[in-house]
Amino acid sequence: MTHRRLPKRAFLVQLACAAACVPSLAFAQAPTFKVGLILPMTGPFASTGRQIDAAVKLYMADNGSDVAGRKIEVILRDDGGVPDQSKRIAQELVVNDKVDVLAGFGITPSALAVGPIATQGKTPAVIMAAATTGIVATSPYLVRTSYTLSQSAGTMAEWVKRQKIGRVMTMVSDYGPGIDAEKTFKEHVERDGGKVVGEIRVPMRNPDFAPYLQKIRDEKPDALFVFIPSGPAVSLMKQFTERGLDKAGVKLIGDGGVTDDDTLNDMGDAALGVVTSFHYSASHDSALNKKFVAAFGKANNGMRPNFMAVGGYDGMHAIYTALKATKGQGKGMDLVDAMKGLSFESPRGPIQISAQTRDIVQDVYIRKVERKNGQLWNTEIDTVKAVTP
Ligand code: PHB
């Protein structure tokens, strides 16, 4: 594929036109409503792309592709989880394809790279995956249906305090959400006189956990709090037990990406008993979730949906609902306005898009890995209601 680079001025003019040149619906057949879906379909975060793509397809199969007189068309583009690619693809989608909304963004750097394009092109962008707390504030066109690290790490820290776990270390991926998790966790733990006894940051891509785990073993904390993004998190569990940290009495706790539903069954007994805090478990006990998990599995060779899938499914719901609310006009800030304050039942439980922040408010669960009917599940053991971002 070849890519034409536009001079900056021409690009800005085109962005402005993409925002302003709305065909009149009164005289023409209503144009298709285009969703530019940017996901990592290849590379270390490909599981995120696979999950969200499947969830978007499921939402459309469940709800049809005609909304308020508009035919919905999803244009899926692979950014490989490389932010420069996310940005270039977003420009092309806005300028050339004239998409009505951007969506997806598997990792924080991708969402941050797309924010300015959303602003310049006056194009709403729905964050279905990225989770660093501050992202949504970077553009008035951003809306989030995933979660924030302050939701998961803050809830985990409060649980640590309730359990009176004394010496805790943190290990996080060295970029936005990891640093966010580390900071939030420490702040909560130390607010009431607790102590984080060591902080480790590991490379975002291709981390080799072995040397870090050795250091943690030597330090022998009571618990290790971890944030590793979905995808690279898989190898952590294996190395944690291989290095004998479980036998040394270090309790593994963390953001729920560590016991990702997509790969939990591959982790085997090493994952049993691991406690995490998160906004979605495939074992969430509701009629809606049971239906969602069954339909997702049926459409995808038995694949279990994870938190990324739910972010994608709910993101499509927000888009559909806003398009209906604007009577099919669904353009720019009107679409964003129509998403503000939305509240609905998701497979994860009740959620709301804050009218003030455009960010997600949701229940956060403490979960424990258990084996049930031969499979591993994140069983919800406690709930903190309506946690703000
Ligand atoms: C992020 O980069 O924001 C991110 C990626 C994967 C996760 C969580 C957060 O599991």
Can you characterise this structure?
This protein has 389 residues and is of the alpha/beta class. It has two domains: 28-147 and 285-358, Response regulator (Rossmann fold); 150-278 and 366-387, Response regulator (Rossmann fold). The chain has helices at 8-20, 46-63, 83-95, 108-121, 149-162, 176-191, 210-219, 234-242, 264-267, 287-299, 307-325, 332-339; strands at residues 33-39, 66-67, 70-78, 101-104, 125-127, 142-144, 167-173, 195-202, 223-227, 251-255, 275-278, 343-346, 349-353, 360-372, 375-387. A hairpin with a 2-residue loop joins strand 2 and strand 3. The longest helix is centred in the C-terminal third of the chain and has 19 residues, at 307-325. The model has no long low-confidence stretch (mean pLDDT 93). P-hydroxybenzoic acid binds at residues 107-108, 130-132, 177, 229-230, 257.
Record the SSE blueprint.
Layout: H1 8-20, E1 33-39, H2 46-63, E2 66-67, E3 70-78, H3 83-95, E4 101-104, H4 108-121, E5 125-127, E6 142-144, H5 149-162, E7 167-173, H6 176-191, E8 195-202, H7 210-219, E9 223-227, H8 234-242, E10 251-255, H9 264-267, E11 275-278, H10 287-299, H11 307-325, H12 332-339, E12 343-346, E13 349-353, E14 360-372, E15 375-387
Helix pairs in contact: 2-11, 3-4, 5-6, 11-12
The chain binds P-hydroxybenzoic acid (PHB).
